[in-house]
């Protein structure tokens, strides 16, 4: 959880555009380098990643297996290390990478167009065509020896169906006076009225976050959490105060809540494609040696190497598709008869918001993202 929170704070929140990442993928990729690292780099990897490659590999496999069991949700993930044709990694590292689900592929970086095409074709195949490029040819040169990459594609079906979609306004930024150009855009706004789990998070400065859970069909542990600031257009100020413990508490509460609120829910329909280099964020977390010091990965190959890039491409599509909740499922969320019925809530997502797709069973966010301007690609 701590690594996912760090990625939210250092990668997602600083972005001024729609952004989403899957924290566990770079975490797993980097963990495969642990056995090849010298003492100094090992210490940095331990303090930055906070988990072993074995622990992370098991978590990824559990998340994917549980999601695929539903038969209605799609989760495609791929991890790879691309090696130059004359670069050989140690047998132990190679075996560990394969065990953790990381593919090791050979490319000729001297022919950067062909090398990029190899990597990009691999990505397109693994993501079912949703992600078509992981690297541009001009990002490669004769000095390139290795590239690490992770991609993920997710599309889920809602447990509760949105009943209509109509044009609505989404305010991308506050309008302080009537002379300013409008900051509102028209978006397709989905609507449902249903019983949903809802909560609020308060912060010492008076700001806070309101959140609602949207469960997916099939695997009961998989849900999306949408977060809005309690004070309008204060998402950044509120989200920066959100701690790893807060996120853990929210996920835990979803498993324990026995009641839900009747809710009028409005959510914009959108899709996003996010392309990021994670190196600056990883360095800010203290992971520097593998990028800057050639002896840091002395156990990886016979040639001194530094990692040039750790990149991620993410595609997320949110629309009205889903299945109608059964009566039994709805009854499972009814409040205890001894308690007063919770109030009906209006939750209208018409300003920048956070989203998390969480695995409640393993208590880990599969995706974290920020939407500042809903768009359909």
From TrEMBL:
Transmembrane feature ranges = none
Q: Which InterPro entries match?
A: Serpin_dom, Serpin_fam, Serpin_sf, Serpin_sf_1, Serpin_sf_2
The Serpin domain sits at: 5-374
Per the record, the domain of life is Eukaryota
Arranged from A to Z, the UniProt key words for this protein are: Protease inhibitor, Serine protease inhibitor
Q: Does the keyword rRNA processing apply?
A: no
Q: GO CC terms on record?
A: extracellular space
For this protein, the record's CDD domains field holds:
serpin
Task: Name the Gene Ontology molecular function terms of this record.
Answer: serine-type endopeptidase inhibitor activity
**Similarity section:** Belongs to the serpin family.
Q: Which PANTHER family match?
A: GH10112P-RELATED (PTHR11461:SF211), SERINE PROTEASE INHIBITOR, SERPIN (PTHR11461)
> What is the name of this protein?
Serine protease inhibitor (serpin) 17
């Amino acid at each position: 959880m701590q690594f996912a929170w760090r990625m939210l704070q250092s990668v997602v929140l600083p972005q001024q555009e729609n952004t989403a990442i899957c924290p566990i993928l770079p975490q797993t990729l980097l963990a495969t380098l642990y056995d090849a690292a010298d003492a100094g780099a090992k210490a940095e990897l331990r303090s930055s990643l906070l988990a072993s490659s074995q622990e992370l590999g098991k978590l990824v496999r559990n998340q994917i297996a549980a999601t695929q069991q539903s038969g209605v949700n799609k989760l495609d993930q791929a991890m790879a290390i691309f090696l130059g044709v004359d670069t050989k990694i140690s047998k132990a590292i190679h075996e560990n990478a394969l065990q953790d689900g990381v593919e090791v592929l050979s490319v000729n970086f001297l022919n950067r167009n062909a090398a990029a095409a190899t990597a990009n074709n691999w990505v397109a195949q693994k993501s079912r065509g949703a992600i078509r490029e992981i690297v541009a040819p001009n990002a490669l040169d004769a000095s390139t020896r290795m590239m690490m990459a992770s991609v993920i594609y997710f599309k889920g079906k809602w447990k509760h169906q949105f009943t209509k979609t109509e044009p609505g306004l989404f305010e991308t930024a506050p309008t302080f006076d009537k002379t300013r150009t409008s900051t509102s855009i028209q978006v397709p706004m989905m609507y449902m009225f249903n019983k949903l789990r809802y909560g609020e998070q308060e912060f010492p400065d008076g700001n806070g976050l309101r959140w609602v859970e949207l469960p997916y069909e099939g695997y009961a542990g998989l849900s999306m959490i949408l977060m809005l600031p309690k004070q309008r257009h204060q998402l950044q100020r509120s989200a920066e105060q959100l701690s790893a413990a807060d996120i853990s508490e929210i996920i835990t509460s979803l498993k324990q809540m026995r009641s839900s609120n009747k809710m009028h829910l409005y959510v914009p329909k959108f899709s996003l494609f996010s392309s990021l280099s994670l190196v600056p964020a990883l360095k800010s977390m203290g992971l520097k040696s593998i990028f800057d010091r050639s002896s840091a990965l002395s156990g990886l190959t016979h040639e001194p190497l530094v990692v040039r890039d750790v990149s991620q491409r993410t595609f997320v599509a949110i629309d009205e598709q889903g299945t109608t909740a059964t009566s039994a499922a709805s009854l499972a969320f009814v409040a205890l008869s001894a308690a007063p019925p919770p109030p009906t809530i209006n939750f209208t997502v018409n300003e920048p918001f956070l989203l998390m797709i969480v695995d409640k069973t393993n208590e880990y966010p599969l995706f974290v993202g920020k939407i500042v301007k809903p768009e359909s690609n």
